[in-house]
Design goal:
The complex is a heterodimer. Chain A is of the alpha/beta class. Chain A folds into 2 domains: 165 residues, P-loop containing nucleotide triphosphate hydrolases (Rossmann fold, 3-Layer(aba) Sandwich); 66 residues, no CATH class. Helices cover 37% and strands 26% of the residues of chain A. In chain A, helix 3 crosses helix 4, helix 3 packs parallel to helix 5 and helix 4 packs across helix 5. Chain B is an all-alpha fold. Chain B has one domain: ABC transporter involved in vitamin B12 uptake, BtuC, CATH 1.10.3470. Chain B contains 11 helices and 2 strands, in the order H-H-H-H-E-E-H-H-H-H-H-H-H. Chain B starts with a helix and ends in an 11-residue tail after the last helix. The chains are: A alpha/beta, B mainly alpha. At the A-B interface, helix 2 and helix 3 of A face helix 6 and helix 7 of B.
Amino acid sequence: MGEILSLASVTKSFGAVTVADALTYSLAEGEALGVIGPNGAGKTSMFNLITGTLPLDAGRITFLGHDVTRQNAAQRCRAGMARSFQVPQSFGGLTVFENAMIAATQGANLPGQEAEALCLDVLEQTKLMSKANVLASRLALLDRKRLELTRALCARPKLLLLDEIAGGLTDEECRSLIEMIRAIHVSGMSIIWIEHVVHALTAVVGRLIVLDFGKMIAEGNPKAVMESREVKEIYLGIETDA
Amino acid sequence: MDWVNAILQGTLLGGLYALFAAGLSLIFGVMRLVNIAHGDLIVLAAYLALTVIMALGIHPLMSLLAVVPVMAVVGYVLQRSILNRTLGDDILPPLLVSFGLSVIIQNALLETYTADPQRLSAGPIEVASLNLGGLAVGYLPFLMFVTAVAIIGGLQIVFYRTGLGRAFRAVSDNQDIAQLMGINRRHVFALAMALSLAVTAVAGIFLGIRTSFDPATGPARLIFGFEAVIIGGMGSLWGTLAGGVILGVSQAIGAQVNPGWQILAGHVAFLVILAVRPRGLFPRMDG
């Protein structure tokens, strides 16, 4: 089990606001890592830095043993990174199946028939098969979130980045999504998952990191992290008078 | 009968306008680039054809075999080397750069081919026509119209039935996300420009056969192309064909009333449609 991803002193700021402050951690192959933190802590920015939509100010990102710091988003996707977005970003003018095909033919670089087979498999897995020919712009929220996941999986990633995929869903919808993600993780996928719905996160991940103002303020076993004093103070906003 | 004839001839002329416009429509649809140099690229294609015809002594329609691939390569290189750098959130830089290209192309043509008007001579087919109960349908206009329909139909198939078209539509929808899905948008844009200029090559050669051209002819073709695109609705290919036909028919009717009103009638029809349907007749449905 080697490292799939490692961040070394990754730093990014917008003027006076630091969204990533010397972030340093690594992810083992097949590991699921949870990320929590208050709004504006730099969680999504961290994904933007990892996937290459945002350039780093300083630091280094290594993916599968290669330095990808200077690679663009398309190259990193082809190398095996895929993400879902907090606010679903489907191609509205394309059908669900076409959205998946873009990822399979471009991201995973599969030829036509193999790409189609992969997409059908994934659509089955994410329960979107019945909507395969619907325009993505007509989907309701849960289905859009499923499409985010579908599209990420169709790029055949080695690392899956999930950004608040459970946000805004009902409990029942959330449960079905957690099952889906757990199954994906069990099949060997490395995952980094940002989520406000902490119970969803702890049901799947083995390790948790907490961000605040771009800094990593806690890391470790989910239970221990959630009970640590810093997290209660900063993340949950609970005053702990000594 | 004169009026029926005017409408028929206008429709056929509309096919040529649709060809002028198809490349413009495609580029705008894929990358929101308004290519001011489009008309000059049409004229450039006509001059390239002239050179090929002079050198090899072949028929203008045969010169398509050489000019289409050359223009496609020109398009790819132009996009990769210059136009890609101008694309961003601001719509102004590509507009200015393509305007600059327009000036450069016109002057380069002037320098190389002089200001003398030129024609591509297609021989007897130019005047041959089919007599349909009093209506004369010229072979050449008919060929142009059929070609326009075939090219637009072909582009429609590329857009909606192929992987390349899917990539075109994906980058048109959301460039940043398309990048994250592994699409190299610079390459996709360059392919779109290559396709656009391949169509432009056909338009240029038909232009050269139909009328005389000189290095300053481009901007007027650009206006017709623009009008066809806007009448049809931005980003809709069949709409562009309809726009071309409406423009052609308006001009023919105008000319029927008074020969001096031909161009004016086209512009008036354009303005009326713009006033009544600002998004064009068949605007693309956006999700």
